[in-house]
Design a protein that fits this description.
about 210 residues, alpha/beta, UDP N-Acetylglucosamine Acyltransferase, domain 1, 8-stranded mixed sheet, 24 strands, globular, binds coenzyme A
């Protein structure tokens, strides 16, 4: 989906895909697979790569890889890509490396941090603040002035009413309705959403 968005937006010259599970020489959506993590250095100099997008859904893993790449190759820039069928207000801000997928809406006054994923047809209303490496799932909906801390995930179809704050590294489960603030590092779900258990930031949730 990230690659499809990059290609459809057609703002960057996409030279290839780096993937540890796909064989070099194969193609993904018509784009050649150039190698694995072990080949990154060679690929960057061979193709004069100046930017990248990390296509990993898990917030912690996406953040770790982004930080590793920017520390190891300081001239590389995380690239922000917005699908032409998404709608981002000109009064909203998107951080570097953030991806906005088809049908997503980001309204005026909202600030989205670096490395976030705003998934298919999600809606982020006015004056929200999303931290770094946050994900908003398909059809999830944030009211105005909602805050979401770093690495938190608002999963498939969850709703968050206006002015609620969600801490860092918290996962709001599919279909939840959040009507009160949630702390850091919990899994919460249900209507109304309640913290069900604690979690660690690196714990997989997808
Ligand atoms: C919340 C979530 C992360 C799992 O949390 P978990 O603590 O690991 O939960 P488990 O899978 O162990 O399930 C524990 C119980 O909670 C229930 N449960 C899990 N997620 C739930 C949810 N979102 N709403 C209501 N109940 C839920 C399960 O049915 C199970 O109930 P049971 O004990 O009666 O069988 C996951 O269910 C979820 O909602 N993931 C969303 C993923 C997503 O959005 N993917 C799309 C990405 S594009």
């Amino acid at each position: 989906m990230v690659l499809d968005t990059l290609l459809t937006e057609n703002r960057a010259c996409v030279v290839g895909v780096i993937d540890n599970r796909l064989s070099p020489g194969k193609k993904l959506l018509g784009v050649p697979v150039l190698g694995t993590d072990a080949d990154v250095s060679r690929i960057i100099s061979e193709f004069q790569v100046c930017g990248f997008v990390v296509g990993i859904g898990d917030n912690w893993r996406r953040g770790q890889l982004t930080q590793h790449l920017t520390q190891r190759f300081p001239k590389l820039t995380p690239f922000c890509t917005v699908h032409p069928r998404a709608w981002v207000s000109r009064f909203a801000e998107l951080g570097p490396g953030t991806v906005v997928l088809p049908g997503a809406v980001v309204n005026a006054g909202t600030q989205v941090g670096p490395g976030c994923i705003l998934n298919t047809q999600c809606s982020v209303d006015h004056d929200c603040r999303l931290g770094a490496f946050v994900s908003i799932g398909p059809h999830a909906c944030l009211g105005g002035e909602v805050r979401v801390g770093d690495y938190s995930a608002i999963c498939l179809g969850a709703h968050v009413i206006h002015a609620v704050s969600i801490g860092q590294a918290t996962v709001v489960g599919a279909g939840a309705v959040v009507v009160k603030n949630l702390p850091d590092s919990v899994v919460a779900y249900g209507i109304p959403a309640r913290p069900i258990r604690s979690r660690t930031v690196e714990e997989p949730y997808l």
